[in-house]
Amino acid sequence: MTTAQANGPKPYSELVKPDRVHTALYKDEAIFRDEMEKIFQKTWVWVAHESEIPQPGAFKTSYVGLQPVIVVRTREGEIRVLLNRCRHRGATVCENRTGKTSNFVCPYHGWTYGLDGALRGVPYPEGYNDFDKSNYGLVSLRVESYAGLVFATSKDDIESLSDFLGPAKTWIDLFMKQGAGFGVKTAGEHKFRFPGNWKIQLENTTDAYHFPLVHRSFLNSVDDETGQTFDLMNQGGFVQDLGNGHSVMVMIPHLVDLEEGLDAPIPERFAALADELRRSHPEDVVRRVVRAVGGTGFNLNLFPNLACSMAFFRVLRPVSVSETEISHIAIGMDGGPEAANRARLRIHEHFQGPMGFGSPDDAEAWTRVQRGAEAGPDLWIMLNRSLGVDGVDNQGPGLGDVSAETGMRAAYQMWKRMMCA
Ligand code: FES
Ligand code: FE
């Protein structure tokens, strides 16, 4: 099907134009169901960071679109993504968010599965005739990783993850430099839901236009020097389409490569941290850690569900056409100084936390978008900022506009390609 049901059949190609998308994309249930099928079942979907499942038996539960899955490390150290669905009568076999186990036991009738998903045993087996356990393992999805990011897909015949990411890999490598010479590990997660369509959030991570307005309370809460750093409209930032719906929004150009500029003066807000680190670390390590502690100066949007944003992962999960779950996963330095990881968490809480100065304001704006989208039968969502502005759209350093809606246009062109396929 290449048409939306509401408002009479309308081809998807007509709902996405170069400079706008139709509001039906936020509120039509038939479109939502089609998206789950044609996007979330047909491409690479982020499910975990490798550090979340560090040793054999470690697992987390997650989703690929609407499908519940278990991401688990097997005894051999491989990562498997298993559909969280018992092969007897369909119950989920695991409801814990994370943990460590040697097997998964379905709570309903006790069918027991190994870490690789193989069915190991069923209670009272004499009740079955001619039962071959090898036909009833948990279903495994295809899994590939890049730089610790684990993706899964239901499709065996699509391109490799590496090809799908393409030029975004360069930005992932830059993002991971926030390990500051140590590894990168996740450092806790919090979740919330908002009453709005998943694409409202997808847009937001590549939207600098709202920052000085929605995040005024954040800007009022920081010192002058930090305020200048976050004066995003005047930093020479830009947005680039990276292909396949991915994009990068560079907000603070001097924080793109955290291995450069190590001799720059230490910002006032990190002076106390630097002093604390100097008690146990040489000056070069102190400088590397302090430079990386606030994360990178860009947001990398990976279509359809992951943003690598400054110093955290933002993961979106569509729940229904008008409800989305967001996970904010803080990032730490694996084996890095405790003081630096503590500082990371305080920075994270300050903006992204439930009582933070940033994310609650974002959520209010997203909620209003969904509510307002109910008004008018045939209105459009505008994505034309910077489009056609000479020498600004989709340009690199010094040429672009950080508030260009280039990243959103890139995501919706990918949406159209997949929905019309
Ligand atoms: Fe899982 Fe029956 S549904 S054992
Ligand atoms: Fe925001």
What do these coordinates show?
By secondary structure, this protein is of the alpha+beta class. It folds into two domains: 45-153, Rieske [2Fe-2S] iron-sulphur domain (Rieske Iron-sulfur Protein, 3-layer Sandwich); 166-419, Naphthalene 1,2-dioxygenase Alpha Subunit, Chain A, domain 1 (Alpha-Beta Complex). Helices cover 28% and strands 26% of the residues. It is built from 14 helices and 22 strands. The protein has helices at 12-15, 24-27, 29-40, 161-165, 168-175, 198-204, 211-214, 216-220, 224-229, 271-278, 283-292, 338-352, 359-372, 406-420; strands at 3-4, 10-11, 16-17, 20-22, 45-49, 58-64, 67-73, 79-83, 98-100, 104-105, 112-113, 119-121, 142-146, 149-153, 183-194, 238-243, 246-250, 298-302, 306-309, 312-320, 323-334, 380-382. The strands form six sheets. Strands 15-21-20-19-18-17-16 form a seven-stranded antiparallel beta sheet, with helices on both faces. A four-stranded antiparallel beta sheet has the order 8-7-6-9, with no helix packed on it. The radius of gyration is 23 Å and the shape is globular. The N and C termini lie close together (9 Å). The model is unreliable at 1-7 (pLDDT under 50). It binds FE2/S2 (inorganic) cluster and fe (iii) ion (FE).
Layout of secondary structure:
Elements: E1 3-4, E2 10-11, H1 12-15, E3 16-17, E4 20-22, H2 24-27, H3 29-40, E5 45-49, E6 58-64, E7 67-73, E8 79-83, E9 98-100, E10 104-105, E11 112-113, E12 119-121, E13 142-146, E14 149-153, H4 161-165, H5 168-175, E15 183-194, H6 198-204, H7 211-214, H8 216-220, H9 224-229, E16 238-243, E17 246-250, H10 271-278, H11 283-292, E18 298-302, E19 306-309, E20 312-320, E21 323-334, H12 338-352, H13 359-372, E22 380-382, H14 406-420
Helix pairs in contact: 10-11
